[in-house]
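Thought: the user wants the 3D structure for the chain below. I'll pass the sequence to the structure tool as-is, report back what it returns, then summarize two notable features.
Action: structure_tool
Action Input:
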Amino acid sequence: MTRALILLAGACALAAQQPSFVLRNANVFDTGTGTFLANRTIVIRGEKIEQVLGPGARVRGARAIDLRGQYVIPGLIDAHVHLVHQPDFAHMTPEELLPMYLAWGVTSLRDTGDEVVAETAARKWADAHPDTCPRVFTCSPLLDADPPYHRDIGRAITDPAKAAETIEDIAAWGVTTLKIYVGTDRPVGRTIIAEGHKRGLIVAAHLGKYQAQDAAADGVDVLEHIWSVFNYGFPEGPRPARHQLDLNNPRAAALRSLIKDKGTIVDPTLAVFRNMILLHDESAIHASPDNARVPKRLRDHWERYRVKSNLQPSTLAARKGEFAKYQELTGLLHRAGIPILAGTDSPEPYVPPGASLHQELEMLVESGLSAADALRSATIMNARALKQQDRLGSIEAGKLADIIVLGADPLASIRNTRSIRMIVRGGRVLDPARIHAAVPAE
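Observation:
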């Protein structure tokens, strides 16, 4: 080997040993303790975190970014979005919306039921454009009765004996989750759960015909939407109005105990209930500043929906009372020790991609979670629900370098999750303003 080749080999070896860059003097959120660890140094090599070092650590030969006085949290994960269904109504494609999530610090998301070809294409687009898109985890179409409630993104399974064949076909698309939908009955639901678990898939459910008591007993992993708990907690006999339900009645309390005992997770998606179903006739919702960066086509679709829904002012007090019950139930579930996820159902009407996850965090805190627990819901809890806790959800050696740098302490006020100064997505340092620029205006 010539001297030049020896020197080149030595230089390459040195480069391989050196980290890509380090984040110095950071206050780092520890998802285990729910506290910030002061003056940490995060060593990043390639797309992964190599080390998290304590105060006074020095790393030589690496580009350093000083984060003194700033707060570092793991990349946020939105546990419930639909990249195809709602954009279709607005004549938009998923890749036009994906930058909105990343610009708001959502470095990963779970599409929770969509047309499988289109969502797979969206996942591949996101993988090819990591500077503007979050990671996408895909789900089955909505597994439902015949005809499916949503014919555009639903798939009928009515015979338990035929469920395995359908699920095998869906699994071949690389989905991580199966989604049971409102028309599914217990025999089919039980089979979907069993067949999904055989294949290592998560099974989530937006319940209707299938009772929550039965789904939890059958081993469903995640109950999607607070309705999938609330709707099954009414006492026997005459039903009170939804805003007057006693959430501590024996049937509701027994359901919470069952959910806890079975290890079922709940994804309340409070954002969609407040921002679409209950309060979107209030200007604070439909004229929210969070909607300003949403493409006009999507905002126009939302406005058409709002006008068509024609919610009456006379029902507003009852609707507000109903939403207060959803938040009360979320707090009761959390205090019972039931894991709570952070999902939004964006981009349903007035549920803006990315921004709505910050709204969700605020509503979780209003519901009784601490700011630390809300952050855990959007990071490590969502990662566990995706079976991605070895790669995502916390700032630890060996995990992907998905990191959000904040200018203010989110434990002092959960609204400080909005103070995004820098985004690191798989070791790439990104400017949120540049990502927002990738979102179409029209």
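Final Answer: Structure generated. The first strand starts at residue 21 and ends at 30. The chain has two domains: 20-73+398-436, 76-385.
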